[in-house]
Write a structure and sequence with these properties.
By secondary structure, this protein is an all-alpha fold. The protein contains 16 helices and four strands. 66% of the residues lie in helices and 2% in strands. It comes from Pelagomonas calceolata.
């Protein structure tokens, strides 16, 4: 996470309060903690090393990136055994010594990773993304071009699906360590903060993600970036939801969706994303009637604008199917529509994302539950008919 706590007592400092070591910029809540950390916490041995590593934030980012990459490599070892990186064609990265990962939909068929597609080093992905973004800056490309290139930090260039889990987390740290040395107002550093929060969230490190996303929102507010604030607020709401703080997230979701709709209109990708997020929060609070109403209105728009196979369209249909079968008082027709919707969504998700993708797994689990409820409902209806006849 970002260094927002005292290195000695772990008191929360936010982004600006407290005191820094004059040599390496390690942060403290005051002189007493700084002296204690120097005398008893080992800082006297580390200070010069941290300074040589680029200062406290850079040193910490480099260290955490190394750890995150090692975790990702270990997690992916069964999928990458005996294969080589599709970028550098090596088993072990020549500079970092790291192993291989696979964190997208490449080569995934029916839930089993196969072939060499998508097998890569995190360092190779980071080098590729940095090169593309550097070229965009050097050539003074517009914001849309920069954004398209920035997507390489989180999206596979082969299958065009987002990385997920520990691989997304490792890339988030790689992105942050690449740009952490830039000024706070620099666009790439700001985007890297956002990407780190997304990576931590994807790997289920929600408390750490919360720290980063709160800092990200605070910076957006400081610089008066209204549109960025909407993104940061939406990201923060996602982490609140995962930390079981869903009632706190709901007004955030409502506000972001409403403002985004006013700014961009119903067919804009940001409006569709926020509609999906708002509906998901409503469903998690068992406000299924509202969720169904919103999805009935938005899914046709997403299908028309994005297509049936788009990740966002699939997520909307999943939320809709889930709300149909979970709602109190769900009818037989509701359950049948839920199963039909989820069957079709699961089939497309398996083809597009792969069977091992977390989202595909979620859809199929929901489908299994909906089928079970439908079978029970049909059996009960049959018994009721038999009783009425007799």
């Amino acid at each position: 996470m970002l260094l927002t706590k005292c290195a000695s007592c772990a008191a929360e400092l936010g982004l600006t309060s407290g005191k820094k070591c004059g040599r390496c910029a390690t942060r403290y809540c005051g002189p007493a903690c700084q002296v204690q950390h120097w005398n008893e916490g080992g800082h006297d041995q580390l200070c010069k090393k941290i300074k040589r590593g680029g200062g406290a934030e850079q040193y910490h980012a480099d260290m955490m990136c190394t750890v995150a990459v090692a975790v990702a490599v270990a997690k992916c070892v069964d999928d990458t055994n005996g294969q080589t990186c599709y970028i550098c064609t090596e088993v072990v990265h020549r500079r970092t010594g790291e192993g291989l990962v696979r964190g997208c939909a490449c080569g995934d068929r029916d839930g089993v990773a196969s072939g060499t597609a998508g097998v890569v080093h995190v360092a190779c992905l980071a080098e590729q993304a940095k090169l593309l973004c550097d070229e965009a800056e050097e050539n003074n490309l517009d914001w849309d071009a920069k954004s398209e290139r920035w997507a390489r930090w989180y999206t596979c260039s082969l299958c065009e699906q987002k990385y997920h889990g520990v691989v997304r987390c490792a890339l988030g740290w790689a992105c942050w360590k690449t740009y952490v040395g830039r000024p706070e107002a620099n666009w790439a550093r700001r985007a890297a903060t956002t990407e780190l929060g997304c990576g931590l969230h994807s790997a289920e490190h929600y408390e750490d993600a919360l720290t980063v996303r709160e800092a990200d929102l605070a910076l957006a507010r400081r610089f008066g970036e209204t549109r960025n604030m909407l993104v940061m607020l939406s990201n923060l709401a996602s982490t609140y939801e995962e930390l079981e703080r869903r009632p706190e997230a709901l007004p955030m979701r409502r506000e972001v969706y409403s403002v985004t709709l006013q700014l961009y209109g119903e067919e804009h990708i940001e409006s569709l994303i926020e509609a999906n997020n708002y509906a998901g929060n409503l469903s998690s609070l068992r406000r299924f009637k509202e969720a169904k109403s919103l999805m009935r209105k938005t899914i046709p728009v997403a299908q028309r604008v994005l297509g049936m196979s788009n990740d966002l369209t699939l997520r909307m249909r999943w939320i809709y199917g889930d709300a149909l079968y979970e709602a109190d008082g769900a009818t037989l027709d509701d359950l049948r529509e839920a199963v039909t919707t989820l069957e079709d969504t699961a089939r497309i998700a398996r083809r597009v994302l792969g069977g091992a993708h977390p989202f595909t797994v979620h859809i199929e689990r929901t489908l299994q539950n909906a089928r079970s409820k439908l079978v029970s409902f049909e059996a009960l209806s049959e018994r009721m008919r038999d009783l009425s006849v007799s």
